[in-house]
Amino acid sequence: MQRTLRRIAAGLICTLLLAGGTVFAEEDSTPKASASEMKAVILQAGQDFDPAAGEGECKAQLDAALSKVAEYGMNAVLVPANTASGVLFASETWPMACDFDLLSYAAEATRGQGLAFYVVFDASCGVDEQGQYGARTNLSASAVQSTAAVLGEMTGKCQPDGVYLAGYYNQKTAESMSLYRSEGASMGYDNWVRECVSSLVVNASAAVHGAKADTLFGLITDPVWANQSTDPAGSATQADFEMAVDGFVDMNAIFAWADIDQVMVRCTGSLTDETQNFKTVLNWWAQTASQHGAGVSAWICNERLGGDEPGWKAPDQVMRQIIETRAVDGCVGAAYGSLSALEGNVGGSTDVLLRYYADQIEEQDILTDLTVSTPEKRTYTTREPQVNFYGASDPNFPLTLNGKELERNSEGVFSVEMDLEPGLNTFTFEHKEKSVVYKITREVVIIQEVSPSGSMTVEGSTQVGITVMAYSGSTVTASLGGVSVNLTEQELTGDSADGNTSSYVPFKGTITVPAATESQQDVGNITVSGSWSGITQSASGARVYVAALPQQAPNVEGQKGHLVEVTASQARTYPAGVLNNDPNGSCFPLPKGTVDYIVSDKLTYYDDTYGSGEYYILGSGVRVSASSVSSLGEAEWQMSSLSGATSWADGQYVYVSFARSGRKTAYTVSFDGVGYSSSGGVSSFAGATGMTVTLKDTRADTGAPGLASNNLLSGVSLSQQGNDTVIRFSLRKAGAFLGYRAYYDGDNLVFRFNQIPSGLSGAKIYLDPGHGGYDGGTSISGMYTEKTLNADIAARVADILRSRGATVQVTDTSGYVSLDSRVSQSQSFSPHLFVSIHHNAGVSSAKGTEVYYFNPYSRQLAANLSGAVAGALGTTNRGDKYGAYRVTTHMEFPAVLVECGFLTNPDELSKLQSDSYKNAIATSIADAIQNTLTSML
Question: Under CATH, to which class is 764-934 assigned?
Answer without folding.
Answer: alpha beta
